[in-house]
Write a structure and sequence with these properties.
The chain is α/β, with parallel strands linked by helices and 235 residues long. It contains 8 helices and 8 strands, in the order αβαβαββαβααβααββ. 33% of the residues are buried.
Length: 235
């Protein structure tokens, strides 16, 4: 048994987790902090009778999204704490590794906004990375998210206690993450378009030293532990 077996089953496509937890056919879906909307694009190939609206704050990523249209997929610029839609517009909301990026003092308000734009009985799928494991040990050297990830879970707990939401499912699993070499890791993880991690030569050297022991002839392989909570908006 390895140190990371307790993270749960290894799942390469999170859409399989979502698909098991809730019906996805003929749904109006909003993804908050959609990034490149990879899961949304796959979802619409699997369920072409649904509609997905991706809300993204990063202007560069939003422009890329608009330049790659897909049937059933619509993009708007915006943030979770001020969702630019009318009340009761959606059946399902997705927050995929995005709640912890909401400013600390706005997380609770963001969950209130999600409740507002969902129809009664609508669902919120919150998927957050767990602050644990070998991959996290490398990431935290330049982007320590311990505080914000804990705050995200606390905000979900508070939202459930408030009576606005009921938690209807919970799942833990691990996602494989692979990098060909350190250069790919640096580009993907250390220099995202949406954040400035203040990368300098000293930080690169420190992170490289932690990363290189994971290299094999087939690249570096990690698992990212994930924690999913599915909430139902109460009437």
């Amino acid at each position: 048994m390895t140190h990371e077996d307790h993270f749960g089953p290894l799942i390469s496509d999170e859409l399989d987790v979502l698909d098991q937890l809730t019906p996805l056919a003929r749904r109006d879906i909003v993804e908050l902090g959609c990034g490149a909307a990879q899961l949304a694009r796959s979802l619409l190939l699997r369920h072409p009778d649904s509609r997905v609206t991706g809300v993204e704050v990063d202007e560069r990523q939003h422009a890329k999204n608009l330049a790659a249209p897909q049937a059933g997929l619509h993009f708007v610029a915006g943030v979770a704490q001020d969702i630019p839609f009318l009340d009761a517009s959606f059946d399902l909301a997705l927050m995929l590794k995005s709640l912890h990026h909401v400013p600390l003092d706005a997380m609770s308000h963001a969950l209130g906004e999600v409740a507002r734009v969902l129809r009664p009985g609508g669902l919120l799928y919150v998927s957050e990375p767990v602050y644990d494991g070998a991959f996290n040990e490398v990431i935290r050297l330049f982007n320590d998210e311990g505080v914000v990830r804990a705050a995200a879970q606390a905000a979900v707990n508070a939202a459930v206690r408030s009576g606005t939401w009921q938690q209807v499912a919970e799942q833990r699993f691990a996602m494989p993450v692979r990098f060909t070499d350190f250069a790919e890791f640096e580009q993907r993880m250390m220099r995202p378009t949406y954040a400035d991690h203040r990368i300098d030569d000293a930080k690169i050297a420190t992170v490289r030293a932690a990363f290189e022991p994971h290299m094999t002839p087939d690249g570096a392989r990690f698992t990212r532990p994930m924690h999913v909570r599915l909430l139902k908006r109460l009437a």
